[in-house]
Structure formats: C-alpha cells, structure tokens
Specification:
Number of helices: 8
CATH class of one domain: Alpha Beta
CATH superfamily of one domain: Transposase Inhibitor Protein From Tn5, Chain A, domain 1
Mean pLDDT: 87
CATH topology of one domain: Transposase Inhibitor Protein From Tn5, Chain A, domain 1
Strand order of the largest sheet: 1-2-6-5-4-3
Helix content: 40-55%
Oligomer: single chain
Number of strands: 6
Low-confidence stretches: none
Strand content: 15-25%
Largest sheet: 6 strands, mixed
C-alpha cells in the first residue's frame, strides 16, 4: 500500500464544464510540481484538442479513455483493428487480446498523432453458488488513446497504466468520500470549501504516512488506517492524552 496524495483542487464556475476547471488546476500543478509527473491520466471527457495540446506544450503525455463519442477516431481504429491479428496474452484467469497502433490523426485540432490501444478481456470466474462451484466468463472491452509512443511505453505497460486509473478513483476519490467526508459541505463559502478540502488532503497524507511509515507491522495488522484515525479523533474530542490503540500498545502484563 502506497501513500495516495491529492495535491490540489479547483472549483467549477457557474455553467462551466469540468475540463476548463481541470486545466486551470493543471496549469498550477505544472508550474509548481513540473518534475513530479510525466503523464496525465484522465477520463474520455479530456480527449479534446485544447487540453491535449496544453499538456504536450508542457512536455506531458496524456492517457485517456476512448469512447464512442469520439466517433472518427473510434471508427478509424475499429476498422483498422478488424483487419489485424491481435496479440494474445494468457494471464491467470484471464485471456487478453490486444490491438495497439500509433499514428492516428482523426481528432481535429490535436497537434500530435495519437496511439490507440484496444483490449478485449475474457475473465474466468469461479463462484460458489448453492453449495457448488460454478465457472463463469465475463467479457470486457477497453479502449484508450494516448500520446505516449511505443518506444517509451510498450503495449503491456500501457495496458497496465490504463487500468491503473481506477487506483486514482478508488484510493483518492472513493476513499475520501467514503471515509473522510469529502462529500459533506461544512461551509458554503467558496473560500471555506477550498480551505476545508486542502486541509483534508494534508490530514489524510499525514495519517497515511504515520500509519505506513511509523507504525510497525504488528500494530497495522490489528488496526486499519481508518480505525487509527477514528481513535485519534476520539482522543482529541474527549481531551484524552492517550488513545485506545496507544494504551493497548503500551499495556504490559504484570
């Protein structure tokens, strides 16, 4: 488990789309943390010329989900892949067929050719139903478009990077909403909202660092990160000097 770091937030203006607000935030991030990252991974909404051209102008590559809304690029890639023999990977409980081609220029306004990766995955599941083991199969199709050339990132690593975007969703957005009350608005003033969110980001990073880098494995086996956070919160609220988990850690038999 690595530390999941959220570093900035940007409010959308009235009637404004998500992408312009994200670009404002990205401008700040590029200015302040230019050497921290090389690739921007995003949903298919970000497959548009101004955003991709901005990233490439700042020497950042883009990896986005390709959806049917990008009709010309999708149709060009689909038609070409229909004439090609895919690469096949046999993985544990999964068979993956992959098509990976560079040089697409179907997206108007984008200054660089795009690379498209399509993965058809057949997943083998084994479930226990009514006391018996049942083998089932699930099919999934994944499409990605990227500015990353093959010489920098081979097909297998690009496929892994495309799936890794769900780590961002789960380790940041989902965790912050489910366990850290990100979806609760404590104040309705815009400045207060931003300050709360940024403070929450700092607290969560400190908690993760304390939990993963300071606590010994035996302690982590007995307490989840959220359990530790709740114990610290309970101790602060009660005015106690020692929280339950510290008391258990320091207690010794007679």
């Amino acid at each position: 488990m690595d530390v999941a770091v959220a570093i900035d937030v940007e409010l959308q203006g009235p009637g404004e789309g998500e992408v312009p607000a994200a670009r404002r935030m990205l401008e700040r991030i590029v200015e302040r943390y230019e050497r921290f990252f090389d690739v921007v991974s995003a949903d298919g909404l970000y497959l548009e010329a101004p955003f991709i051209n901005f990233c490439r102008a700042h020497n950042k590559h883009v990896l986005v989900t390709l959806k049917g809304e990008h009709r010309l690029l999708f149709q060009d890639a689909e038609g070409l892949f229909a004439t090609m023999t895919p690469e096949v990977w046999e993985l544990p409980r999964r068979t993956v067929r992959v098509w990976d081609v560079e040089g697409f220029t179907s997206c108007e306004g984008i200054n660089v050719p795009l690379r498209v990766l399509h993965a058809h995955e057949l997943r083998h599941r084994r479930e226990r139903i009514a006391g018996q083991w049942v083998e089932t199969q699930e099919e999934h199709d994944w499409w990605w478009a990227t500015t990353i050339p093959k010489k920098l990132l081979p097909t297998r690593q690009l496929w892994q990077a495309g799936h890794a975007r769900w780590d961002i969703e789960n380790d940041n957005f989902n965790d912050l909403t489910t366990n850290w009350d990100l979806d609760h608005c404590f104040r309705h003033d815009p400045v207060a909202i931003v300050n709360f969110v940024l403070t929450l980001f700092i607290v969560r990073v400190l908690m993760q660092t304390f939990y993963l880098r300071n606590l010994k494995p035996p302690v982590r086996r007995g307490f989840t990160l959220i359990a530790i956070a709740r114990q610290l919160h309970a101790g602060l609220a009660a005015g106690e000097d020692v929280t339950l988990w510290l008391a258990m850690r320091t207690a010794r038999p007679p």
